[in-house]
Automatic annotation (TrEMBL):
<dbReference type="GO" id="GO:0016491">
    <property type="term" value="F:oxidoreductase activity"/>
</dbReference>
<dbReference type="Pfam" id="PF13183">
    <property type="entry name" value="Fer4_8"/>
</dbReference>
<keyword id="KW-0411">Iron-sulfur</keyword>
<keyword id="KW-0408">Iron</keyword>
<dbReference type="GO" id="GO:0051539">
    <property type="term" value="F:4 iron, 4 sulfur cluster binding"/>
</dbReference>
<dbReference type="InterPro" id="IPR009051">
    <property type="entry name" value="Helical_ferredxn"/>
</dbReference>
<keyword id="KW-0479">Metal-binding</keyword>
<dbReference type="InterPro" id="IPR017896">
    <property type="entry name" value="4Fe4S_Fe-S-bd"/>
</dbReference>
<dbReference type="GO" id="GO:0046872">
    <property type="term" value="F:metal ion binding"/>
</dbReference>
<keyword id="KW-0560">Oxidoreductase</keyword>
<dbReference type="GO" id="GO:0005886">
    <property type="term" value="C:plasma membrane"/>
</dbReference>
<dbReference type="InterPro" id="IPR017900">
    <property type="entry name" value="4Fe4S_Fe_S_CS"/>
</dbReference>
<protein>
    <submittedName>
        <fullName>Succinate dehydrogenase iron-sulfur subunit</fullName>
    </submittedName>
</protein>
<keyword id="KW-0004">4Fe-4S</keyword>
<dbReference type="InterPro" id="IPR051460">
    <property type="entry name" value="HdrC_iron-sulfur_subunit"/>
</dbReference>
<feature type="domain" description="4Fe-4S ferredoxin-type">
    <location>
        <begin position="14"/>
        <end position="44"/>
    </location>
</feature>
Length: 181
């Protein structure tokens, strides 16, 4: 059965169409995905949604936020489809359209923490996420947080990596979907 992939079916980003059109649904991306157990749709299913022109469903999928960005799917693809880059672009599109407010708030808080410190500072991540998402995640976590503090599992100050500028440049490239410049 032939599938008619329409460029007009995909919003704004013509790159999404090119990525989706190249995939022939072999499933190698999904076979080794380390986070597929936590995804509602598999990576292959997300790209299939784009091929079928139902990009709203692809944007509504929590799978785009679960993606670990490990590049396994991209490396394994016999067609060279940059599925990890596609996931980044779908996140960016969802952010622009105001979808997945809580997931987007966590994603942005996580990236902000990495850019600032070079690694995750859990108390800071929780504070920024709670403020951006408008959720009360702090009160239920206070007891656990105090226990972790006493055990030395978390600190009140973030530890910093040595060369944060190189890391920031790398993160800027990644947040542009792996495109240089």
């Amino acid at each position: 059965m032939a599938i008619n992939i329409s460029r007009s079916a995909l919003p704004e980003d013509g790159e999404l169409w090119k990525i989706a059109a190249a995939c022939f649904q072999c499933g190698r991306c999904t076979g080794g995905c380390p986070v597929v157990f936590a995804a509602r749709e598999t990576p292959r299913q997300v790209i299939r949604l784009l091929q079928l022109g139902v990009w709203e469903k692809a944007l509504a999928s929590p799978t785009i936020w679960v993606c670990a960005g490990c590049h396994f799917c991209t490396v394994e693809c016999p067609r060279g489809v940059d599925l990890q880059g596609l996931m980044v672009r779908l996140k960016q599109l969802a952010l622009r359209q105001g979808k997945h407010k809580k997931e987007a708030a966590f994603y942005q808080a996580f990236l902000m923490g990495i850019k600032r410190n070079g690694r995750i500072f859990e108390p800071g991540l929780l504070l920024v996420y709670a403020r951006r998402a408008g959720v009360n995640v702090l009160k239920p976590q206070v007891k656990v947080g105090m226990q972790m503090l006493r055990r030395g599992q978390v600190t009140l100050r973030p530890s910093l990596v040595e060369d944060r500028m190189k890391l920031r440049a790398l993160l800027e490239t990644l947040t542009r979907g792996g495109r240089e410049g």
